UniProtKB/TrEMBL annotation:
Entry-linked CDD domains: AAT_like
UniProt name for this protein: Aminotransferase
Domain Aminotransferase class I/classII large positions: 125-387
UniProtKB keywords: Aminotransferase, Transferase
Residues covered by region (Disordered): 96-129
Gene3D superfamilies, alphabetized: Aspartate Aminotransferase, domain 1 (3.90.1150.10), Type I PLP-dependent aspartate aminotransferase-like (Major domain) (3.40.640.10)
Molecular-function GO terms, alphabetical: transaminase activity
Enzyme Commission number, as recorded: 2.6.1.-
Amino acid sequence: MTTTFPSIPYLDWIIGRTDEVTHDLATSDLRPTASFEGLVPPSLAGLPDPDDATLTGQLADRYGVSESNVLVTAGATHANFLAACALLDRAKRRRHEADASEATDATSPTDAADPTEATDAADAPKPQVLVEKPGYQPLCETPEALGARVDRFLRPPEFDHALEPHRIESAAIDSFAYAMVTNRHNPSGRLATRAELAEMARHAADVGGYLLVDEVYAPYVDPADDGPFGGVTAAGLPNVVVTGSLTKFYGLGGLRVGWLVGPEDVVERARQASMHLPSVADPSKKLARRALHNSEQLDAAARTHLSANHELLASFLAERPNLDGRIHAGGSFALLEHETHSGDEVVEAALDGDVLVVPGRFFDRSDAFRTSLGGDPEAMAAALDAFGSVLDEL
């Protein structure tokens, strides 16, 4: 099997655009608008470092798991890639063992068979990955590039993009490897509960696979929950792998620090796969340790930022009768529709007005667009004013 990595249309579209506009309503990281020249992000400057903690140990403590259940990665995209490698490998090995067992059972003592015949890679079905729809485009493209068959299961817009666990069993085939969801759901912003995720995991297990949950937006809640970073997590549930990073909630994307949390055998296989890729730079690890050591202070600042942006977006939508969509409690991004114009038409008009929002077609919704408030509230208020003027012209 040849592994190929085609372009990802959403990433091709977004790269560089945020630097070309005055008003960025596309980026969802909770970050300061102003750039900085130094090596240390302003939010970490002058804060103390832990004495002897390791980054893996800090994350294990945060999630309430063993260090053997944690792998530090170069961001959440890297974590999702390694999780896909591990879970697809597991599915292929399981299929290989099943085929070998069937070949052995079918072979009589006087009728020897070629032991490789039943497990010819050319004849083996591709491992199946089920990805939520609507969903974030790279979560489909990555497993497909790694040789998987990618199918979709709906999070129906008419039911507010709810998770419906029975859809996994309805869509799964014999080669099912894992199902992929985001929490908060990207692009709608809906937050699933741990109980809902546990039910999804149970259905995935019933058909022989895992549940992979991208939790980069899970901390986007106010007030804080009792999970890691104050958000909901599926970590520690049977048959579940979760990924996260410091990029979104802490606005520390420049560090490129993420992680994978899951069963020990899956984490170990991901670790083996990681040997083929660059590792996280030591300065990034040290700054990440500082961030987690001072998380109480950073969490409070991020939650204040999040709450202000949520109120701005919710108020904006409430004043726009020609827009339809829901701003979920505590969220600062949403998938919205215009009553008379397509998602692309809104996006093009916004670009003409020096405002960046994301076409919904990159999230399986050509009728919609995604609006995200990540920058500081003052800048976001100005961006919404500019976007409002664009919508008035429409």
